Amino acid sequence: MMRLTATVLGLFALGVALPSTGLAAKGEGKKGEKHKDAFAQYDANANGTLEKEEKDAIVKDFEKKPDGRLKQFDTDNDGKLSDTELDAIKPGAKGKKKKKQ
């Protein structure tokens, strides 16, 4: 009976811990961390370069949520991420908006 209780408590603790670490890994954890580093989120193979597939994932996510965290990289405010804008995403990068004229 004691072994069963320990197993159930262990599984419960694991179930509580996993969702919170998954959110933090996606950059959706604490409020200040949300925009922390888009590059790290999409550099799936952690090689320090955004490959075509990783850039495609960024574009797809931006199309799903154009007012989300990736909006900062749409520097010309056209609602699309160009190759130039994608190439500007670097580790720790924060997008810069051009001033409207």
Keywords summarizing the entry:
single chain, 0% strand, elongated
What does this protein look like?
With 101 residues, this protein is mostly helical. It has two domains: 1-31; 35-101, no CATH class. The chain is built from four helices and no strands. The longest helix has 24 residues, at 2-25. The radius of gyration is 19 Å and the shape is elongated. The model is unreliable at 18-35 (pLDDT under 50).
Quick rundown:
The chain is mainly alpha-helical. 47% of the residues lie in helices and 0% in strands.
Give the helix/strand layout:
Blueprint lengths: L1 H24 L12 H5 L9 H13 L18 H5 L14
Structural class: mainly alpha
State the shape: elongated
Element order: H for helix, E for strand: HHHH
The overall number of domains is: 2
Count all strands and give the number. Answer: 0
Rounded to the nearest angstrom, the distance between the terminal CA atoms is 72 Å
Beta-strand fraction estimate: under 5%
Mean pLDDT: 74
The number of distinct helices, counting runs of at least 4 residues, comes to 4
Percent helix, as a range, is 40-55%
Q: What profile does the largest beta sheet have?
A: none
Using the CA coordinates, give the radius of gyration: 19 Å
Uncertain regions spanning at least 5 consecutive residues: 18-35
